[in-house]
Amino acid sequence: MACPCDWPEPVIRVQSLSESGKPLIPDRYIKPPPDRPSVDSHPPDINIPLIDLAGLKNDDPAVREATLKEISVACREWGFFQVINHGLMPELIDGTREIWREFFHDSMEMKQKYANSPKTYEGYGSRLGLQKGAILDWSDYYFLHYLPSSLKDHNKWPERPSSLREVVEEYSKEIVRLGRDLLEVFSLNLGLRDDYLHNRFGGDDIGACLRVNFYPKCPQPDLTLGLSSHSDPGGITFLLPDENVSGLQVRRDEQWITVKPARHAIIVNIGDQLQVLSNAVYKSVEHRVIVNQNKERVSLAYFYNPKSDLLIHPAPTLVTPETPALYPSMTFDEYRLFLRTRGPQGKSQVESLKSEE
Ligand code: OGA
Ligand code: NI
Questions:
Q1: Structural domains in the chain (count)
Q2: Which of 50, 226, 252, 331 could disulfide-pair with 289, CB 3.0 to 4.6 Å?
Q3: Is residue 243 part of a domain?
Q4: Distance between CA atoms of 28 and 10, rounded to whole angstroms?
């Protein structure tokens, strides 16, 4: 296998392309027609479920029950929902997003100090995957590790803006707390012990990493995507969307639903590992990002993952003669390797595991 220490071709920052003001995007970013954003849009009133997490703490047991039920339906039928009253302060949410926006608007020279390599992907990047000549997405990103602590290295986090490290610490702590709370809810909703999923994820040894996505303005948004269709390989993803610009689309049957974020909401989606643990009761759903001619977009995707060397398999109580285990046992590390060696994904990535046994 080729050494994955460097990119197969020179890295081009999408932000630089955008700022060059050229009216046409390079061929490398032009998607084949079936993958382009479709013109026929879905009815504008459809949205992913919006759930008020305050309901989980309501004094009235009927309200608590109804909130659990809403989350259950969202996990089974959508794989995606947005939450409000999640415990993260509005100032923290806006502050974190704006600090990253500032980072991306800093000089290219500053950002290049953090240029990443495909070995760990940590730092400032502009592509995922190593396939030479691949069609690329219209985005740059910054990727960093928070947990396990052994992978956290503040020197790999931007030193500017000066409060970035402190703010990202605070934001990360809150996301990890939210992740733990939701794993408890998911466990109960699946009829498991309340600490079942937390323990399967490795207790306090979970993984948590952040990808901040920057989608520059694009002169030909109909021909490309900010992020190609994919499912998230990990446990749960917490997405903080841009407050001004929509762009995230979620697959629902044959349609792409454009998510309309509520103010200060966090979007939650089920990753492949939870689809496996729930034996496909919960769905890891495909999603993608479209770009915009007049507006840039910033989003923060926080990946809350199982400890990477634990075996993940369907919960035994969810395996019955009628619902046999759909997936083999595999660690998250092995799964990521499996995805990488498979090359570009087909549909839902975890589906292809079914035929592996
Ligand atoms: C991701 C992702 C969506 C977005 O980073 O995995 O799906 O809106 N991001 O940026
Ligand atoms: Ni994603």
A1: 1
A2: 226
A3: yes
A4: 13
Q: Which residues line ligand 1 (CB under 6 A)?
A: 211, 213, 227, 232, 239, 241, 247-248, 287, 289, 299, 301
Q: Kindly state whether residue 14 falls inside one of the protein's structural domains.
A: no
Q: pLDDT tens for residues 194-245?
A: 999 999 999 999 999 999 999 999 999 999 999 999 999 999 999 999 999 9
What the block records as the tokens of 227 is 């992020």
| Residues in a beta bridge with 83 | 51, 266
Helix (H, G, I), strand (E, B) or coil at 303: strand
| Band (21; pLDDT cuts 50, 70, 90) | very high
- The answer to the question of residue 234 being in a domain is yes
pLDDT tens digits, residue range 121-148? 999 999 888 888 899 999 999 999 999 9
Task: Supply the CATH number for residue 42's domain.
Answer: 2.60.120.330
> Could you list the residue range(s) of the whole structural domain that residue 115 is in?
26-356
Nearest CA to ligand 1 atom 9: 301
Rg, C-alpha atoms of the chain = 20
